[in-house]
Structure formats: C-alpha cells, structure tokens
Amino acid sequence: MPTIKYYVREGLLPAGRLTSPNQAHYDEGHERRLRLIRALLDVGGLSLSAIAEVLVAVDDPGQPLHDVLGVAAGRIIPPRPEPSEGESAEPGRTWAGEEVAALLARRGWLVDADSPAGRSLEEVLTALRRAGHGGFVELLDVYADAAERVAGADLDYVRGRVAREDLVESVVVGTVLGEAMLGALRRLAHVDASARAYEGGGKAEREG
Q1: The pTM is what?
Q2: What residue ranges do the domains of the chain occupy?
C-alpha cells in the first residue's frame, strides 16, 4: 500500500508541516484528502495518474463545476482504442453511433454524441451487436429513464453542499463512487429478479 510520503512525492497530497527533520504533522485537511484518494483508488478503481488529474481539477478554484464533473467522468471511461494502420472501422460502428445520436436527440440531453460517455455507449452497442444481441438497443430508453433519475438524485445531493471544497468533492465522489454503487445495486437486483423468476416464481408457476 502506498504511504503518505509516496502520495506527497507524487503530488496527490500537500506536504505536511515539518516538526523535525524526519517527521511532519498532517492536519484534518490531509486526512480528508487521503480518504478521498483511497476511495477513488480502492472503490472507484482509478489509477494514481487518473486521480492526480481529478485532484488538479478539484484544487483549481477557477475550474467550473461542470468541467470538474467532466474530468471525473472522463477518468472512469476507458479510452477508445485507435484503429491500427490500415484497419477500417468495425462494421456496426455507424449503426451504433446513429443510435446514440438518436437517443440524445430523443431525450433532449445537452451532451455531444462524440463525448467520452457517448463514445463509450457506442462501444457497448457495437459489442452487443457483435455478440448477436443488437436487439438490446430496444432497452436504451428504459436505461435512460433510470439514468435520469439517478443523475437527478446525484445533483440534489451535490446542491446540499455550500462550501466549494465540499461541493467539488461531492461531484467527484458522486461521479466515481456513484458509478460503482450503481453497478453493485444492479447486480443485486439481477440476483433478486432471477431468483423470483427462475426459482420462486418459476417453481410456483410449474406447480400451478
């Protein structure tokens, strides 16, 4: 596990106040930042370099909150691989891009289809079609309904913060760790739905 000195050396934590040549005092602000780093690293799954980029945005008082959100969101989306030289675009890519653009227009979402999140969704749709499940696209609006509710709840939570430090940190935590929480809840719901359909409910229907 990296030490506090390592985080200081990497620029993730400010240096503590020296109390002797070999010792430094770290205050409550250091402890708070350390908890944030560990949460982004252990639960959010971000690399130390990605965390460093997020913290630079967090610590910039001139950075608009919307831009901080974009930096945090961009760090949890895997970069899109560039095609190799001479490699053509994968079949289905145009179809997926059109589906993403249509979804954004249909929902009236103020986001570019070519944004990292839009590209990520395009990758997912392409992979689904490649696996023979392109029909999954019919669930896009169902997922979008749930995403809108979650996004609204996230922002309601953020609006409850007054100090900029609390506000920005809430945005980062809500974006990165909220992603992990949503994934865990979805898996729990899947287990419950499967148990009801194929164990409890299914058995009752067969017996009936």
Answers
A1: 0.70
A2: 89-140
